[in-house]
Design brief:
There is one protein chain. Helices cover 39% and strands 22% of the residues. The chain is of the alpha/beta class and 276 residues long. The protein has two domains: 98 residues, no CATH class; 151 residues, NAD(P)-binding Rossmann-like Domain (Rossmann fold). The strands form two sheets. Strands 8-7-6-9-10-11 form a six-stranded parallel β-sheet, with helices on both faces. It has a five-stranded antiparallel β-sheet with strand order 3-2-1-5-4. The longest helix has 19 residues.
């Protein structure tokens, strides 16, 4: 059996949605003690809060929360009698905490120095990362679990296949390829963010080329070049990577679902359960 803590770490690294189920109060004879936990996803459950029909009902409740796709908490009371088919005869208070998964896809084009410094940082963030390059030898042997390497001779095609609202970073070693990727992204018009590495001079040239190709000022404004938070200085690969990560963190936090906190009545119930 996988321990709930181990499962939690794996799910968080992959950006998968889950519900943390915790026994926060017991009375009488119960199968598990206060503080027992399990983790439930759409397809699996990890660890146990006692098994039997109690656990069956808890998993069902957890998956009900998963379907809501909105972070929330809920408190349920379970008498362990005939109605649950358990003979313990006690009473269990169970807290359900739903944590949404990473819904945002990030395409990273280029496997150069900046990308290599950036990818480990992205591995700690709730993003689904697709790392694209045509050079197999540039990819490291290990990448974080939320990163998928995409080796292709036609990277521009990957722009077309990205989900609507995806973030996109253009960090390649080839200015012409950078431009082609940028143009393809702007033609789509439905990406959530387009960041292009480069100098102010490169940004000015790209904007001029795009204007000549009949892109409107509004379209061109969707390109962020140079990419990265302006308040993070430095030109070393790690410094640039940190500035890009800072900008991405601010962006995805704007799109995260609003977390629903327990109401005053819920907190009162939780307090009572803990005092049992």
């Amino acid at each position: 059996m996988i321990h709930w803590g181990e499962a939690l770490a794996t799910l968080q690294s992959k950006g998968e949605a889950y519900v943390l189920v915790t026994v926060i109060g017991t009375r009488g004879s119960t199968p598990r003690e206060t503080g027992s936990k399990m983790v439930v996803t759409a397809e699996n459950s990890f660890d146990t809060i006692g098994g039997g029909h109690l656990e069956f009902k808890a998993i069902a409740k957890a998956r009900e929360l998963l379907l809501s796709e909105q972070e929330a908490q809920a408190l349920e009371q379970y008498p362990l009698g005939a109605t649950l088919g358990q003979c313990c005869g006690g009473h269990v208070s169970v807290l359900f905490e739903y944590f949404a998964g990473a819904s945002k896809t990030l395409l990273v084009f280029g496997a150069g120095h900046v990308a290599k410094a950036l990818i480990p940082i992205l591995g700690e963030l709730p993003l689904k990362v697709v790392w694209v390059d045509s050079r197999e030898e540039q990819f490291p042997d290990y990448v974080p679990s939320n990163v998928n390497k995409c080796l292709t001779d036609t990277p521009v095609d990957e722009v077309q296949d990205a989900p609507s609202g995806s973030f996109m970073l253009v960090l390649t070693h080839n200015h012409q390829l950078d431009y082609e990727l940028t143009e393809a992204a702007l033609k789509r018009g439905d990406l959530g963010f387009l960041g292009v590495i480069g100098s102010d001079t490169k940004a000015r040239r790209f904007r001029q080329r795009l204007a000549h190709r009949q892109f409107s000022p509004t379209d061109i404004a969707h390109m962020t070049c140079p990419v990265g938070a302006q308040d993070v200085p430095g030109k070393r690969p790690m410094e640039v990577a940190v500035s890009i990560a800072s900008q991405l963190i601010a962006l995805y936090h704007q799109d995260l679902p609003k977390q629903v906190s327990p109401s005053a009545a819920d907190w009162s119930e939780i307090k009572q359960a803990l005092e049992v």
